[in-house]
Amino acid sequence: MTLFLLQLRNELWKLFAKKRTYIGFAMFLLAQNVIVLMFRFTHGPRVQMERVLEGNGYLAGQFISTLSVATFMLLPIAYMLLPLYASLVGGDLVAKEAEDGTLRMILSRPISRLRLLALKWLAGALFSFVLVMALGVFGLAFASLWFPWGGLFVFIPGEMFSVFDATAGAQHYAVAHLMMATKAMTIMGLAFMFSCFNVKPAAATILALSFVFVNFILMNIPYFRDLQHWFLTYHLNLWQLMFGQPIPWWRVWQSLSLLVAFNVTFLVIGLTAFHVRDIKS
Amino acid sequence: MIELTRVEKRFGRRLAVEDFTLHVSAGEIFGLLGHNGAGKSTAIGMMLGQVWPTAGEVRVCGHEVSRHRRQALRKVGAIFETPVFYDYLSGWRNLEILSHYTGPTPPQRIREVIDWVGLTGRERTKVKTYSHGMRARLAIAQALLPQPELLILDEPGDGLDPEGMHEIRQTIRRLHRELGLTILLSSHLLNEVEQLCTRICVMNQGRKVFEGSLADTKRAHQWVRLRANDFNRAAGLLQRERLIEATRDGELIALAPDVGTEAIVRRLVEEGIAVYEIARPEQTLETFYLELMKREGGAD
């Protein structure tokens, strides 16, 4: 076990010491700041939010807050940037080492391929978790520079209208991020699976992104509306359910268990492909 | 130390290694020779459990590699043609990471190998600042970490300048002399192999075409240089009398079995042909290799 932890620490070193690991992260922070400034200094989204709140009998001043703006930032980040970044990291984990030639050096040592992949997947999963948590904290920090602390208001047209006091809102915000970590891990795992095949890192990333976006597009075609629960993206969005009043826990557990199944499947396919593959220079 | 028995490897329809049998004993410096694409790296890949053989058995340190890879590679170090590392990490961190894939390694051991390869003082700087020679030394250091009994070197001199090549040769000799390692050296640099190895195996198009000692390569040579006042007349006479089997390049003759150079000289002098020189030209590994490839008809 001690050796496994040492090896995991080494994988994390490799991951966190790379500059390219932080390039994407810098983009996240930039996007968060742009959204906050847009919310603060333009009228569009803020006025719309005020109108919806006041139209439903709430005082807009209490809910145009740090929490509401930080949550407002989540949608574009979760739909666009997070899949891109998670698949970039997952696609790199095995394929980049194969491309660089370090994989051949690792596999000249008596470590099993199963153990190596387990280490890499775990490092990717930890990275995904840390990334989402950091995004949540930075989102709050940037929003707090321009907006006061207060209640949380979440509005997704046709899907959700929720208001919470500050304490409950903070709890929902935290749990939503925990669930969003499962989304990041699953997309990372999908790219990781492709990365185990004999492909370039970019190909693994593109394949994973294509899979997610095709799922998303198909899921939103009215013809497939009744079949939505068959799509991966339907379950990836379970973080949104954490802002429900009340939270539909049966749906959450259903999606969580399916995501676990998806992850195990991705891992098994990746492992099989990696195991039968010849590692050559 | 290494035993390959009737090993075959196919990549799709292409046969990369065919009916390959090899035996490397403990304590040897064994050379695996062949042109690019001859199957050397595939054979090494199979020894290290990186490439799965289609047929046959590969045993390293007494263990079958496909089934008992961990035991087989426990005391094996390997170096590949271009030393690649995590450039953004220090030499020390690279060694730490790579050594832990074998087992827990105390810092003292890492310090020892750094000292041994002469990288002391540079171990904490990032590998991206290392010269090619320093990378080669770091590659040797990582291979030495598990205290190996067998070292597999896949074209370690590739891309090095003559100084770097010399340094690598000296290091290989030191590894053999001071640490008593068995070394398998794969290379297409004949000079390097000739200077280092005691036995060699030559591969061509996935097949073994020669296995033996360097002395064998010299013995296998049958050509004798003959300089006479009329080479064509001399050759014709000797061939008619079955004293030689073939001629080449207007100055070389291949003696028939059990025929010595003295018999040739005597017969030519009897016929009034002046003989200026008769000698076996010094056989190098290069001439042996080129002749072998010519015979096999497969050199690139």
- Kindly report the average pLDDT value of chain B: 88
The total of beta strands of chain A comes to 2
Query: Biggest interface pair, residues each?
Result: A-B, 28 and 38 residues
Number of domains of chain B: 2
Can you tell me the CATH superfamily of the largest domain in chain B? P-loop containing nucleotide triphosphate hydrolases
Morphology of chain B: elongated
- Order of SSEs of chain A: HHHHHHHEEHHHHH
Characterize the structure shown:
The complex is a heterodimer of chains A (about 280) and B (about 300). By secondary structure, chain A is mainly α. Chain A has helices at about 1-15, 20-40, 45-55, 60-65, 65-100, 100-105, 115-145, 165-195, 200-220, 230-235, 240, 250-275, and strands spanning about 150-155, 160-165. In chain A, helix 5 (about 65-100) runs antiparallel to helix 7 (about 115-145). The longest helix of chain A has about 35 residues, at about 65-100. Chain A is elongated. Chain B contains 11 helices and 14 strands. In chain B, a hairpin with a 2-residue loop joins strand 1 and strand 2. The interface of A and B includes residues 7, 18, 105, 106 and 116 of A.
